[in-house]
TrEMBL record:
Keyword presence, Disulfide bond: no
GO MF terms, alphabetically ordered: acetate kinase activity; ATP binding; magnesium ion binding
Protein family (similarity comment): Belongs to the acetokinase family.
GO biological process, alphabetically ordered: acetate metabolic process; acetyl-CoA biosynthetic process
Positions of the catalytic residues: 148
InterPro entries the UniProt entry points to: Ac/propionate_kinase, Aliphatic_acid_kin_short-chain, Aliphatic_acid_kinase_CS, ATPase_NBD
Cofactor: Mg(2+); Mn(2+)
Subunit composition and interactions: Homodimer.
Note on how the cofactor is bound: Mg(2+). Can also accept Mn(2+).
Protein task: Catalyzes the formation of acetyl phosphate from acetate and ATP. Can also catalyze the reverse reaction.
Classification via Pfam families: Acetate_kinase (PF00871)
Catalytic activity: acetate + ATP = acetyl phosphate + ADP
Protein name per its UniProtKB record: Acetate kinase
Length: 398
């Protein structure tokens, strides 16, 4: 079975093409700067290391973007026709409490995804555009929606509710939903297998750290709590997002500086976080600036590390027993200095890492704990696209 996975952003389409016989990624690529005259696209074919790039294109919408994806797959001989694709899996950021599992796309699913756009205005409209474009190209091809929020649907009510008037929840769906659920679920399951622990008895804290970051407390293999909330703004400090702040800052800044709610929303999502403190959202640059003596870069790094440590401590208290902490995603997998800084402050909890193992750059799952560590520290490369492909295969095989 061959599955195409699409992750459609507001101006981009990331894609991977899988042969599910052995869960092999045959090709991957992206289309970006959709809606401009300077669009570009590329594909990388795994088996022969072939790369094809298209530059200075005019790709005006996601429908044209899917045309380009199909062209790249055919031009590199990954497939000869669309008939070779058995199904398409889509990453959907917000499923709210409508969806507690991945689903085959039908008219009702499309309408619910559309209805939830106000909860994820930067993501759901683009995700939906990918679905509609895929269906327009081949209406009879099964499409599957896999929601980032599904893994977090096991949170208890007292965990996901906000202490606001209850009608905010019943009338406006205001509650904590979380994000990155496909990634958290994937690495938690992989961690249990790696350590030889039954998934339904596995307690861990997963750290998806990238430009967007979140932490999840996993109890008996299921999400018990997660750091993101109604939107991906809550929780950790991120590349451009401030994370959790005193909400009274918003009306305060309106009174003293004239910023309205929309301006503050933009500032909190796009001009804060590492960028707001240090001037860059790239942790690699923050690290270099720190080494060059930049005090604000050091402050940004220390703030990020502290927020991660505090969240791990909270979740340790909630779980009672932790078998492992798991680092994943771009920063989690690659920033050895951040892992070291976090784990050094957690030694009193039984977390201890081997610095030599921590500094090695490898692509596979690995244990970087010292031999006497009471809690394992793992690095597990996330593979959200494979998780989506597996769910897609499962649904269309029924």
């Amino acid at each position: 079975m061959k599955i195409l996975v699409l992750n459609s952003g507001s101006s981009s389409i990331k894609f991977k093409f899988f042969n599910m016989t052995n869960n092999e990624c045959i090709a991957s690529g992206l289309v970006e700067e959709i809606g401009t005259a300077n669009s570009r696209a590329e594909i990388f074919v795994t088996k022969n290391d072939r790369k094809l790039e298209l530059n200075d294109q005019s790709i005006q919408n996601h429908n044209e973007g899917i045309d380009v994806v199909n062209y790249l797959l055919k031009e590199t001989e990954v497939l000869n026709s669309l008939d070779e694709i058995d199904g398409v899996g889509h990453r959907i950021v917000q499923g709210a409490d409508y969806f507690d599992k991945a689903v085959l796309v039908d008219d009702d699913v499309i309408e619910k995804i559309r209805e939830l756009c106000p909860l994820a205005p930067l993501h759901n409209p683009a995700n939906l555009a990918g679905i509609l474009s895929s269906l327009e190209h081949k209406p009879d091809l099964p499409n599957v929606a896999v929601f980032d929020t599904v893994f977090h649907q096991t949170m208890p009510e007292h965990v996901y509710m906000y202490a606001l008037p209850y009608e905010f929840y019943t009338e406006y769906k205001v509650r904590r939903y979380g994000a990155h659920g496909t990634s958290h679920g994937y690495v938690a399951n992989a961690g249990a297998k790696f350590l030889g622990i039954d998934n339904d008895k596995f307690n861990c804290i997963t750290l998806h750290l990238g430009n967007g970051s979140s932490v999840t407390a996993v109890k008996d293999g299921k999400c018990y709590d997660t750091s993101m909330g109604l939107t991906p703004l809550e929780g950790l400090i991120m590349g451009t997002r401030c994370g959790s702040i005193d909400p009274a800052i918003i009306p305060y800044m309106e009174r003293v500086a004239g910023f309205d709610a929309q301006q503050m929303d933009t500032i909190m999502n796009k001009k804060s976080g590492l960028l707001g403190i240090s001037g860059t959202s790239d942790l690699r640059k923050v690290t270099q600036m720190m080494e060059d003596g930049d005090k604000l870069a050091k402050l940004a790094f220390d703030m990020l590390v502290y927020r991660i440590i505090k969240t791990i401590g909270e979740y340790y208290a909630v779980l009672g027993r932790v078998d492992a902490i798991i680092f994943t995603a771009g920063i989690g997998e690659n920033a050895a200095n951040l892992r070291e800084a976090v784990c050094k402050k957690l030694e009193h909890m039984g977390i201890s890492i081997d610095l030599e193992l921590n500094n090695k750059r490898e692509k596979d799952i690995r244990d970087i704990s010292t031999k006497d560590a009471k809690i394992k520290t793992l690095i597990i490369p996330t593979n959200e696209e494979l998780a989506i492909a597996i769910e897609t295969q499962r649904l269309i095989s029924k």
